[in-house]
Amino acid sequence: MIRYLFVITVLFWIFESNAQISKADSIFLMTDANLESFQSVSKLNPQKAAFLSAIVPGLGQAYNNQYWKIPIIYGGGIIFAHYISYNHRIYQEMQNALIAETDQSESTVNFYAGIFNQTALENNRNVFRRNRDFLIILTSAFYLLNIVEAHVSAHLDEFEVNENLSMTIVPVVESTPLISRAVGFSVSLNF
Question: Which of 86, 89, 152, 176 is the most exposed, fewest CB within 10 Å of its CB?
Answer without folding.
Answer: 176
